[in-house]
Amino acid sequence: MACNEAKAIAKHVKVPIKETTPNADGSNSFNPGVVVVAVTNTSLLEEQWEDDLKMIDVTNDLCPKICTANYELANMRSLLEGTLVLKILGRKVSYIVLKKRLEQLWSSGRPFTLVDLPNDYYLARFSFVEDRVWELSSGTWVIQGHYLTVSEWSLEFDPWVSRIEKTAVWVRVPSLPLIY
């Protein structure tokens, strides 16, 4: 496929392509975001581009839709199974602060992955099931004086519309008789 054809396809899909610049030793250097295409069989590549273009709906320039097959969705879902959805109630906390504080609170010493989502939600993924179960069920977590809600990820979770409807809290009532 010629460079002009790649540019035409990229323009149709609205993907910027920048050309590489040759170095003195003959190798190519490029900036981040550059698409480099090595072509051996142009007809096969053109068929793939045509198939890929069918999967992209560009009717809305601001938000193109990419269609996926059911098996691709199942693969994406399997990556999220077993993750926990986190949100701090009443306060915004930066990713780094939250990660360090969680490492202190969840002091198993084993690593976990924290992913920042929109609307102050986070996803936590653990290498060991025991860690996930412990973090999910070991009580109320408080970070900088605010409750951290912890729930299991589900297919219905959408950070743009999901709301925290319930959480476990610790209530201290001073001078309450022991009968209660």
TrEMBL record:
Signal peptide as annotated in the record: none
InterPro entries membership: At4g02000-like (IPR040256), DUF4283 (IPR025558)
Annotated DUF4283 domain residues: 79-160
PANTHER family named in the record: DUF4283 DOMAIN-CONTAINING PROTEIN, GLYCINE-RICH CELL WALL STRUCTURAL PROTEIN 1.8-LIKE
Protein name, as recorded: DUF4283 domain-containing protein
Species annotation: Punica granatum (Pomegranate)
